[in-house]
Amino acid sequence: MKFTAEQIAGILEGEVVGNPSAEVYKLSKIEEGTEGSLTFLANPKYLNYIYTTKATITIVNSTFEPDQPITTTLIKVEDAYKSFSKLLEYYNQVKLMKSGIEQPSVISENVEYGENLYLGSFCYVGKNVKIGNNVKIYPNSFVGDNVVIGDNTVLFAGVRIYSETEVGMNCTIHSGSIIGSDGFGFAPQEDGTYSKVPQIGNVIIEDNVDIGSCTTIDRATLGSTIIRKGVKLDNQIQIAHNVEIGENTVIASQTGVAGSTKIGKNCMIGGQVGIAGHLTIGNGVRIQAQSGVGRNIKDGEAIQGSPSFNYADFSKSYVHFKNLPKIVDDLHKLKKQKN
Question: Does position 339 have pLDDT exceeding 70, yes or no?
Fold first, then answer.
């Protein structure tokens, strides 16, 4: 797929300086630009590369004026970084612009779907499913009975959506993710075995949620596991039964949230964080990577460590952690002096 400088400038509302007919068909870093590639210059430390890059087109800020000869065609915009991101989003939309129902695939009884559905080959759609407009379900995906999927949502290849799940509009769920599997509920018996507690709730994913690859969100025992609007989940995250995650919270990979914990809105949670069950995490909380959270957290706190505590206190304490061998030696010396 090729684009001219003139077409790109039209999408970005920019100005072409150079050849408006210059064509590109791939993207590159500015220092690795080759003929036929499009790149951008936003960070001043890469300025020297604008004079040596072999990229055919470069997006730059409108204030940029070269003081040496250049060979690349420029597209001047108000903010080069934002414009390049906008172009990536546009390219992605064009690339994923698919529709139609491929075969073999299975659509069960009483399924309703809107305009421009894309259903890839080897997909299964269960009974009484409702699918909105412009939904894309890539090959080898499973959608269970009574599922609802909102407009403009994308399920990439190999996604599994268990029965009764509700997915909102403008959501993206990446390959290998499983939504609505049973919560981890087992009751110990007198003979030492465990009896499974039926998990009869569901999962509700609100609008504008992104879920990375191989993330699992368990259905509730009763009621719903809820992912609120604007939440962004990375790859390989475990969300247990009856958890609720507030609006616009972001969670990095390999984090696990145990059952019935409530996480507030606008939180930022680093990778490999473990959060115990039945806790309340406030709004605007920041949890550093590899923290272990076993207590309730108030609004706006920043915490670290395992067990976690205030981030500033952790940073101060860490200085002493590193110096423990020297501190112990000093103590031994003091003891000897006293003796």
Answer: no
